[in-house]
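User: Look at the shape:
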Amino acid sequence: MDTAAFRADLELIPSSLTELADALDAGLPGIERLPMLGAARALVLGMGSSRYAADVVARRYRSVGASVFVELASTELLAPPAPDLAVIAVSATGGSAEVLRAVQRYRGSGRLVAVTNRPDSELGRLADVVVPLLAGTEASGVACRTFRATFAVVDAVLSELLGTAPEPRFDGAALRSAAAANAELLATSADWLEPLAELLTGPMGAWTLAPVERASSAQQAALMMREVPRRAAYASETGDWSHVDVYLTKTQDYRALVFGGSVWDAQALEWMAARGSRFAAVGRELPGAELTVRFTGDEDDAVAALTEVLVGELVADRWLPAPG
């Protein structure tokens, strides 16, 4: 990992999303082969960022009746191969050990689909169909552009495989709106990044909350805080927070980044207010927030999922020690 290159990777997000939008509109390589697999169900396998993004997309497909499930590739309890089951293995590098081990169960089935940024990787060689993420090279080695690309490419793969799709989509239009929104946050970050990084610098770490429909934002933001500057950070889904994390607000100097839009926001904020917790809001005006970050399109779930995590990524970069 080259953390010094992380900010440069973040700066490339708007152009990367625009280029992927163009590729989606033109038809991703390999996508035309998917309807021929005859799948009625889909199993998505991944780890880390790949699974975070896939979980959000799969939940949207289940909401319209599609049979789509996501598993950690590390599990030993995988579904058996079946004629109606397509397996979508997601790995940005194409070399995740857990993914490579899991796909051995489905090798040779004719319905193994690889979603990867490196089609010439081991995963690409094992798959029957390869659909590229087209995120470009991440010089830092940190999954930021590939994380965003996973939403759009998994969405496109599921739509072609199953012949149905929820609205709104992670399509070319959403990606172009997200490209503009990411550019907006990068341009305005001088106004809010320093006070936000200071607010979230608590002695016990930082916490992130997001609605289940965009749980990936909390998960990825916390991961970036752990992976890049190696700070303690913990993610919760906003509704579940009141069952698993609320307890710490009573005993710790609690600092949170709240990605707004959950029907359970008020419940979490009531607990935080009662216990003197400090938090910043992203995407919504939330009562009690010491700082609020907004961007164009932040009330559109697809645009928000592709954009709001940049707030956490920029904090992670800001927390890196100064060079020299």
